Amino acid sequence: MPRPIATINPLVGDASFVACHGRLPKPADDQTERIATHLAFAERLLRAVKVAPSQHAARAELLAELRAYIAARRFPLPEATCGRLPAFVDREGTRCAVAALVDHAAGPRASERIDARYHDAFAADIDDDALAVLAAEAGLTRGELALIQPTYHYMPPPPPIVYEVDATAEAAADSSPGDHPAAGLLGLGARWEGRHNEWIGDPIVAIDGRLGADSSGRVPYSAEARIGDEALWFAGTLTGICNPCSAHRTGILAGVRVDADGSRVGQAWTIPVDAYWYVPYPSNHGYHLGAVGGVAVRFAGADRGLGWNAGVDLAITRLVDGPASGFSPHDWHVELGANHIADLTFIAITVGTSSPGRYDRDGEDWAR
């Protein structure tokens, strides 16, 4: 059984990261970026190697395939229970870099055959005719394949229940002085996210509440319970352009909410329906720009029109060093939005933090 290692590659360690960033990698560094950096480093070294003229064309074709693989950024999911290990083909069928080259030269069946016997083995320990074909036709030796092959870092899954703490400052537009012009609120939320389902995505149960004070001495508050669903998808796969292949995160939740704000906004029960769509920006660097919004339909309590909210939210994941585990603050967000309730429209800014998993569910979810 292969023994886990601490670096991304057994031959050159983390030399690729040091060459690119001038320092050793930290646990919080983006794993997708580390893998892509190593593969690009290996490609540059391999392009400088001289081979027999009869191998030039095949080698150039395989290195072009490697470059396309790097650009796509679809790397295997981590599976080791500790340290770092290779994964020839992951549970979703995603190929490692060496498997992608085998696919190109010898076909998918060859990769599947190797994976069945050497799933998490290092290239130097793989004994298969397909690797001999790469060496004979393209001059890609076992040592060069070992140079290419990265390892994948074990990412402990976040707890199924995560929290979020927010602070909001808001001001009502088109209101006269003393007529509910501003308010400050603190919010606390918890959500449970179930195991991923191939057909419906990730089921969610969320409970949230807010309490504050306004400049007229009233006490705004709200409490809600919602259920919903979240999905991760790759826009590039829909268009055939996957360079890099970044994950979009969309979700929708609905439930029951009660809120009030003294005499100005009487207590009412509503059915909120909220949705969001986050896109990594810039791609794969821990920043995720989201469009958020929804409506609230009253069904009991004070009479009021249709409520709505809309905003732009910037989420920053892995802002602090450390793995995505535990309940320490890990993800942060800043939202600028508008919220319409009764006959008031508020312009609000919200700043918050959450435990791992609120915006970065699987550690590798945003960029695979």
Explain the overall architecture.
By secondary structure, the chain is of the alpha+beta class. 23% of the residues lie in helices and 36% in strands. It has eight helices and twelve strands. It has helices at 15-21, 31-47, 56-72, 97-106, 108-118, 129-138, 142-148, 235-239; strands spanning 84-85, 152-153, 161-173, 182-193, 202-214, 221-234, 247-261, 265-280, 287-301, 307-316, 331-341, 344-354. Strands 3-4-5-6-7-8-9-10-11-12 form a ten-stranded antiparallel β-barrel. It has a two-stranded antiparallel ribbon with strand order 1-2. It is elongated, with a radius of gyration of 25 Å.
| Radius of gyration over C-alpha positions, nearest whole angstrom | 25 Å
Which structural class is indicated by helix and strand composition?
Answer: alpha+beta
Helix content: 10-25%
Report the total helices.
Answer: 8
Rough outline: elongated
Q: How many E strands?
A: 12
Given as residue ranges, the uncertain stretches (5+ residues, pLDDT < 50) are: 239-245, 362-368
Mean pLDDT: 85
Proportion of beta-strand residues: 35-45%
Question: Termini distance?
Answer: 26 Å
SSE pattern, N- to C-terminal: HHHEHHHHEEEEEHEEEEEE
Q: What order do the strands of the largest sheet run in, or round the barrel if closed? A: 3-4-5-6-7-8-9-10-11-12
Tell me about the largest β-sheet. 10 strands, antiparallel, barrel
